[in-house]
Specification:
The chain is 36% helix and 34% strand. By secondary structure, the protein is α+β, with helices and mostly antiparallel strands. It has a single domain, classed as Molybdopterin biosynthesis MoaE subunit (Aldehyde Oxidoreductase, domain 3), CATH 3.90.1170. The strands form two sheets. Strands 1-4-6-2 form a four-stranded mixed sheet, sandwiched between helices. A four-stranded antiparallel sheet has the order 5-3-7-8, with no helix packed on it. β7 and β8 form a beta hairpin. α3 packs across α4. The two termini are 23 Å apart.
Length: 137
């Protein structure tokens, strides 16, 4: 499940919705990205962004035994301390949940079609982020 939205998200409510009435989930891993230091603005191409996020989520499900997953990515103007992204992976075992969450975040940091601006400056992916993502190729 993926969502791109301007609204904030409630981490506990998202986890509860993803795992409600599930007895096949033994591990839930979450990652929450939070705005640091500077206000920023995130833009995307509606439709294209969601398609790309679905593709990478499907890839995570092919690589690991996941019962469920969720990507919520915010767009618009965000202030320091605001939530940017939530990745939740649910699996019978922790190893699959951890690996899939890390894979999804590495992809989001480097290849997802979002554009981030801090003030007047567009932010590029860092070399360290590219190296982290390359290990999944």
């Amino acid at each position: 499940m993926i969502r791109v939205q301007t609204e904030d998200f409630d981490i506990n409510a998202e986890i509860a919705a993803l795992t409600q009435s599930r007895t096949d989930v033994g591990a839930v891993v979450t990652f929450t990205g939070i705005v640091r230091d500077f206000a920023l603005e995130l833009e995307h191409y509606p439709g294209m962004t969601e398609r790309e996020l679905r593709k990478i989520e499907e890839e995570a499900h092919r690589r690991w035994k996941l019962q469920a997953s969720l990507i919520v990515h915010r767009i618009g103007k965000l202030a320091p301390g605001d939530n940017i992204v939530l990745v939740v992976t649910a699996s019978a075992h922790r190893g699959d949940a951890f690996s899939a969450a890390e894979f999804l975040m590495d992809y989001l940091k480097t290849r997802a079609p979002f554009w981030k601006r801090e003030g007047e400056r567009w932010v590029e992916a860092k070399e360290s982020d590219d190296k982290a993502a390359a290990r999944w190729d």
